[in-house]
Structure formats: C-alpha cells, structure tokens
Amino acid sequence: MDERAAAGSSVESVFREERGRLLASLVRRFGDLDLAEEVTSEAIEAALVHWPVDGVPARPGAWLMTTARRRAVDRLRRDQAYAARLAVLQVEADRADPAPPADALADLPDERLQLFFTCTHPALADEDRAALTLRCLAGLTTPEVARAFLVPTATMAQRIVRAKKKIRQARIPFRVPGADELPDRLPGVLGVIYSIFTEGYAASSGPDLQRPDLAEEAIRLARILRRLLPAEREVAGLLALMLLIHARRDARTGPGGELVLLDDQDRGDWDRAAIAEGAALVVVALTGGPPGVYGVQAAIAALHDEAADVATTDWPQVVALYDVLLALAPSPVVALNRAVAVAMRDGPEAGLTLLDGLAGEPRLRGYHPYAVARADLLQRLGRYPEAAAAYRAALETVGTDSEREHLRRRLDEVERSG
C-alpha cells in the first residue's frame, strides 16, 4: 500500500470515529450545522493532502478538529454578513431559551448525545429530525438512513434538506433541553441510537454483513443514557435489546465473512455475559408499568438467546410478544417478523399466507428481507419455481456482498431442486 493509500485508510478510520464528535463540537461553538459540515469536509480533504507528506499525526482527531475550527473562523472573517447573522441568531437563542436548569442534561459526557437531544426539537417533524440526526451526527450515509426508514434515497435527501431549512428559518437554537423537555425528546434519541445499531448489525451496503464499530458505538451511547436516566425503562429496554442481538455477532458470519443463519449458528460462540446482562435489563424494562416498544423487542431477543436451538425456541411466546408489539407500534416490518414467527409455530403455509397479505404494503417494496422470507417459506413448501423468483427479487435489492452470495447459493439450491 502506498503512502497516499495508507493515509486515506487512516483518514477513513479516523473519520468514522471522530466525525460525530467533530460536528457536535463545531455546532456547539458556531451554532450552524451547514458550516460545521462544510469545514469538517474541508478538514478531511486537508488531511488527505498533508498526511501522506507529513505523516499521520499522533492525535489525528485533534488535528482534524483544529483544522476545521480554523477553517470555520477564516470563513466567518471573510463573510462579515454571515458572522453578523450568526451573532443575531445567538442573541435571539439566548433570549428565547435561557440556560437549562442544573438537573438537565447539560453535563452529558458525550457531545454527540447533547446534539442528539438538541436536534429532536419539537418544531421539526419526527421523520425530519430523526433523518437529520442520523445523517449529520451519526455519520450514516443518505442511502443508509433511507433504508432505516424504508423510503427511497431521494425522499430521504429531501427530508434532510427540509430539516436544515426549518432550523434556519425557525431559528432553532442548538442547546441541551431542560428536564421538562426530556419526555418528548427521549423517544427520538432512542430511535436514532437504535438506527445506528441496526446499520451496525446489518449493514445496508458494502462487502461486510456487519459494522461492529457502529453497533458498539450505539451500545456505548445507550450505556451513558442508562447511567444518566436510570428510571427510564425504555432506555433499559433499548440497551437490553442491543446487547442481546450483539451477543450473536461472532456467530453470524463464517471464516470468510459469509452469512450464517440463526439455525446454523454455533451458540457456543454467543457472548453469554452480554446475554445475562441483557436478560436482567429486560426485567427492568418490563417491570413497573405498561411495556414499551424496546422492552418488548428485547424480550423477544431474550427468548432467542436463551433457547438451546431454533427448534426449542418458545415460538408461541414469540408470536404473543409480536402481537403486543404490533399493538404498540404497528408497522409492516413488525408484521413481517410476526409472520416468520407464525411460520415457525404453525408451519410455512400459515406464515406464507400472512406474508402474501403484506404484498401491497408500499414500504416493503424493495425491502429484501420480505422477499427472502417469502423465498424461504416457498422453498420449505417445495414450490421451487416461485421460491427462485422470490430469491431473484431479493437479489435485486440486497446491499451487502455476504448476503448477496448467500442468496445466490439459495437460488442455486432451488433451481437444482426444481
């Protein structure tokens, strides 16, 4: 690998780790998300120019931060009108939003979490603020964010632009919310953290099935929230859910990175300490009031993790929990997962009937897990030509190389059988 390639690899690694912190710090300092994004990109470009010549600095994140701050200051000095506008916005923000009380989250130990809360301002639509936070602060690409919401990439790009425009027009301040605002903002923050985890657990594109750095970052952020908000049961539920799923990470891929299905995983490779911690948190999440969305999902994950194998999993209880989840948060993805559980409880024909009932759901168009689930049930029923067609449909939209290779193998199986 030449020096420029090595430097590029270093920049990419640092960028993944530092981008959120860098943006959060710059937004808190300058109060402008667009400016923060622009100078962050300029700092990365500068690193690609200088690091191959001067070497990768001992503290690359600090180098990027210093460079970005200098670029921001230079830009403000050149554009006096822009600087004046920011000053007016800051004065108005201080008048409209006084400093939060001491018992608020002003002492959050991670600047990204602080900014996650500021970007869940009620003036923004739910879908817009979640999209903005995932794209700009969590560092997911626009296609990755679009996948999380089951919408086209172009639609998601419009949402992100709309959210930024709303922040400018409504002069929304970047600040940590007060304690009285947390109940309304916490669900949005939890949703963002879980979306980061989801992209880490099942990447939307690229050569690898998993991105452990994202999954572990989401767990780290959830642990901070758990320490700060110990009475919030859904925080416990989210942390439990992520621990219980992430516990299987080492068994989900083979030596060559190939996908290993749940049926075929070596459960001896599962992280038993994480499973024990997650199971204990499930009890916390489901005790003391009505169940929450994350607590119920965590309970489902616990049933999978505590079973000796797929055959002995308590599928009636899994279906019952999906019934609860559908009542709490109805969605086509929950209905899809419930249909798969019904197939395990009552047989593939019953599951396929439910899946076919979802065929007209627009949010499942292009969602390859739906086509994969249909293909699997059709294959189990011996309906090989239909199964082959479903596998081909899944191959058209699957994102990662490991999943693509798995589907090709399954397609070969049904074509030989048919």
Q: What's this model, at a glance?
A:
The chain is mostly helical and 418 residues long. Helix content is 70%, strand content 0%.
Order of helices and strands: HHHHHHHHHHHHHHHHHHH
Largest sheet: none
Distance between the termini: 47 Å
The helical percent reads: over 70%
Question: Unreliable runs, pLDDT <50, ≥5 residues?
Answer: 93-106
Beta-strand portion reads under 5%
Number of helical runs?
A: 19
How many strands appear in the DSSP assignment?
0
Radius of gyration: 23 Å
Mean pLDDT rating:
84
Based on CA inertia axes, which overall geometry fits? Answer: globular
Structural class: mainly alpha
GO molecular function: DNA binding; sigma factor activity
Domain DUF6596: 185-282
InterPro entries: DUF6596, RNA_pol_sigma70_r2, RNA_pol_sigma70_r4_t2, RNA_pol_sigma_r2, RNA_pol_sigma_r3/r4-like, WH-like_DNA-bd_sf
Pfam family, one: DUF6596
Task: Please characterize this protein's 3D structure.
The protein has 418 residues and is mainly α. Among the domains are: 1-99, Rna Polymerase Sigma Factor, Chain: A (Orthogonal Bundle), CATH 1.10.1740; 110-211, no CATH class; 334-418, Serine Threonine Protein Phosphatase 5, Tetratricopeptide repeat (Alpha Horseshoe). The protein is 70% helix and 0% strand. It is built from 19 helices and no strands. It has helices at residues 3-30, 33-54, 60-78, 80-96, 111-118, 126-137, 142-149, 153-170, 182-201, 212-228, 233-246, 272-285, 293-306, 315-328, 332-346, 348-357, 368-380, 384-397, 401-417. Helix 1 crosses helix 3 and helix 6 (126-137) crosses helix 8. The longest helix is centred in the N-terminal third of the chain and has 28 residues, at 3-30. The radius of gyration is 23 Å and the shape is globular. Residues 93-106 have low confidence and may be disordered.
